[in-house]
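The protein record quoted in full:
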Amino acid sequence: SNSEPFEIAAGPDGNLWFTERAAGRIGRITPAGVVTEFSAGITANARPTAIAAGADGAMWFTEADATIARITTAGVVTEYAAGLSADSTPMSIAPGANGALWFADQAGRIGRVVFEPPVVTASAATAIGETGATLNGTVDARETPTSAYFEYGTTTSYGTSTPVQAFDGAIATAASAALTGLQPATTYHFRLVATSVHGTAQATGTLTTQGTPPDPMPPGTATDVPPPAPAVIDPPLAPLAPLAMPLPTADVLQPAMPVATRLSLVVARRGRVYDGRVRVGCRLDAGALAFCSVAAYANNRRVGTVARAFAGGRVGTMRVKLSARGRRLVRRAGGVRLTYRATAVPAAGGLLRANATSRVTVS
């Protein structure tokens, strides 16, 4: 009794909220008519007067003792006197179009309550390994529902973000996120971003993962050509033994032998399989006799081989005999792309290699 209900307003929770001027309380009434009164946190003789819903999801009310107060939908009250003159007597209060709250002061002034965005800090990353780390920071939501997340990447464009976390407290609260899939020995930029109805705040930092950086690309390496797929040798080729070439006797003069420096494979772009064999050609740019072996691969599986000696300086024709698997692939698909890998041992010594591809069909 004698509570003197003074002003009432709709709240964000679907209930009605009202001031009890004489009793110094705030009341809440549900659509079913259930009333709850709150007095904790309200200074004695404060005389709550006007009330309105704020953009932060809470109710704000004026107090005759030069105070503006806030009450959450859970009934938690905070009083604010900073910015008000000692002779202020706030009366009516209402939300403005820009999200601020405006109030009339009986002392002949108009006041405004301005909401501030959350406050964030970025702390040093922890648990840093070769491919992972934990990002850390704090978020002060200023008692307003706030969403926060980390962004990270190898540049300040970031590019990757962590799941969103929710905050609504009145003090700085720890925020963290565990990262995986990072590159070893790499510097990453990160930032913590927090957003509420009052604005966005962010804080940045860096971390460097542990480990050894990858080897740099050798000079002259083409960056726009992908490396060939690694060959799967089944069964593995036995190493080629150099040919034993007879040495000239002392009484026989022989001209100096040109030294071969390049091996070429000559294949038809669209080859034919005759009697289970495919014709290829090997050529050295110089030199005399050489020994060459050629292996054919389909889908990185070896499906045929051939080896023979031939004279350098011209094309040596060879016929690669396909295995049963290779012949089945050609017959089943009506054709197959083969990759040829050749190795030659020139008479003058050394080891030369060459690769080529062609599509073959059954004749």
Q: What stands out?
A: The chain has one helix and 27 strands. The helical segments are 324-333. The two ends are 107 Å apart (CA to CA).
